[in-house]
Design brief:
Blueprint lengths: L17 H13 L7 H16 L4 H15 L2 H4 L5 H24 L2
Length: about 110
């Protein structure tokens, strides 16, 4: 029988399962510059795996990634990072990019 340990649970609730996928993708995209190009490859591999496991999820993954990125955009300001204006603009721009990609994908059904 499998056993496990729950280390921390700050909140729980019902939500669309792609919110977790989008949040994961958003964190990888937001940190791309820290990983010297490897996050982009990992992100693409993760999207491919999602599509293989649940093909319908691929249609909306970019939309949920955009949601995740927009949620992350306030972080630099909240943490009062020295370059917060740049980081917020960068994350909002990345959000717009993912929304545009999602729209292009929808147009190619």
């Amino acid at each position: 029988m499998p056993t496990g340990v729950l280390r921390a649970c700050t909140r729980g609730g019902l939500g669309h399962p792609l919110l977790d996928v989008g949040n994961f993708l958003a964190h990888m995209s937001a940190r791309e510059s820290e990983y010297a190009g490897t996050a982009d490859h990992a992100r693409a591999s993760f999207l491919d795996a999602c599509a293989a496991h649940r093909p319908a999820a691929q249609k909306h993954a970019l939309l949920f990634e955009a949601v995740g990125l927009l949620k992350l955009a306030v972080g630099p300001f909240r943490r009062l990072e020295h370059d917060w204006p740049f980081r917020v603009e960068q994350l909002v721009g990345l959000t717009a990019q993912r929304l545009a990609e999602h729209e292009r994908q929808r147009g190619h059904r």
